Amino acid sequence: MAERPEDLNLPNAVITRIIKEALPEGVNISKEARSAISRAASVFVLYATSCANNFAMKGKRKTLNASDVLSAMEEMEFQRFVTPLKEALEEGSRKVRRKLQSKRRRTKTKKQIQKSKTRAGMRTTTKMRKGWRKKNRMKRRTWTTEEDGETGALEGTALKRLCAAFSCWTEQSWAEEPKKMEVKTD
């Protein structure tokens, strides 16, 4: 806990700001008055916390919650503070909910953007693949023989098979010389 009694005092800057907001403009307050108000506020906070702690212990809890503080205010006979405290609590809860919802929306939007980028990339890649396949299907490779000047067209795997057969055929030693073939791409 606190080692010195001064450690329990509220910060002077906060107390001074609250005093200035409460008093009309042009009114000055002495250092002793600020010190007295600071000590009184500290005692009030400690007493309210102690009463709220009693309500938490009755509920077999170690953590104070808002209902404990509101019950403590009623027990200390500060009923006029209960309504403003409830309103401030509701306003704070609304702000927290709004922040959480906006954060969820932002993350949801980011995820949707990432998904759409990924999907668009996948669509583009798929379209590119389909286009590439289509181009290859449409691309005809022609072959000609030097002897008779024959020309023909082969596509895809048929051309690959022909080339494989041709390479095997030329590697073998045949008695007669094979025909020369050229493979051209349109």
From TrEMBL:
It is found in: Nucleus. Residues 93-150 are annotated as: Disordered. Keywords: Acetylation, Coiled coil, DNA-binding, Nucleus, Phosphoprotein. Signal peptide: none annotated. One of its GO terms (molecular function) is DNA binding. GO terms for cellular component: chromatin; nucleus. InterPro entries: CBFA_NFYB_domain, DNA_Pol-Epsilon_Subunit, Histone-fold. Its main location: nucleus. SUPFAM superfamilies: Histone-fold. Residues 95-142 have a biased composition (Basic residues). It comes from the Eukaryota. CDD domains: HFD_POLE3_DPB4 (cd22928). Residues 9-73 form the Transcription factor CBF/NF-Y/archaeal histone domain. Component of the DNA polymerase epsilon complex consisting of four subunits: the catalytic subunit POLE and the accessory subunits POLE2, POLE3 and POLE4. Interaction with POLE4 is a prerequisite for further binding with POLE and POLE2. Heterodimer with CHRAC1; binds to DNA. Component of the CHRAC ISWI chromatin remodeling complex at least composed of SMARCA5/SNF2H, BAZ1A/ACF1, CHRAC1 and POLE3; the complex preferentially binds DNA through the CHRAC1-POLE3 heterodimer and possesses ATP-dependent nucleosome-remodeling activity. Accessory component of the DNA polymerase epsilon complex. Participates in DNA repair and in chromosomal DNA replication. Forms a complex with CHRAC1 and binds naked DNA, which is then incorporated into chromatin, aided by the nucleosome-remodeling activity of ISWI/SNF2H and ACF1. Does not enhance nucleosome sliding activity of the ACF-5 ISWI chromatin remodeling complex. This is DNA polymerase epsilon subunit 3. It comes from Sus scrofa (Pig). The lineage of its organism: Eukaryota, Metazoa, Chordata, Craniata, Vertebrata.
